[in-house]
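Batch manifest, entry 17 of 40.
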Amino acid sequence: MLKAIQHNFRNRKAAFTLVESLIVLAIVSATLFLCVTLQPKKETGMVMATFKKRFSLLYQSERLLAQEKEQMLSMTFSKNALWTEHERLVLPEGYRVRGEEVVKISASGFVSPKTILFIDDIRKKIFRLVILFGGGDYYFE
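Output type: structure tokens
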């Protein structure tokens, strides 16, 4: 009898049964469904957050460069980009500047006060960059 059981196990082929195959297929399809539906959506808010960080770095480096060179520098906001003497920072998609604005940075690092209006064409909202007088503080609203 023991030989018959051992012989039966040797001859049995290792394969998935129909039920096991259906379970595996259900798990794979559920995983794919979740991956597709839970993908992060590309939003202008995330792009604007990146713009704010890049602006902050560029703004501080321009202030330090003006102090180092001991000369007045300017940052020009055109319709779709921010221009400095050395770099161009493109505005996020869907945003534009209302008119051309120039921010002057003195040799001491002080900045002329200015409010730059960004228009969001997608959401139809106005977004402001307010640069305060003096030490170069600014905020977005």
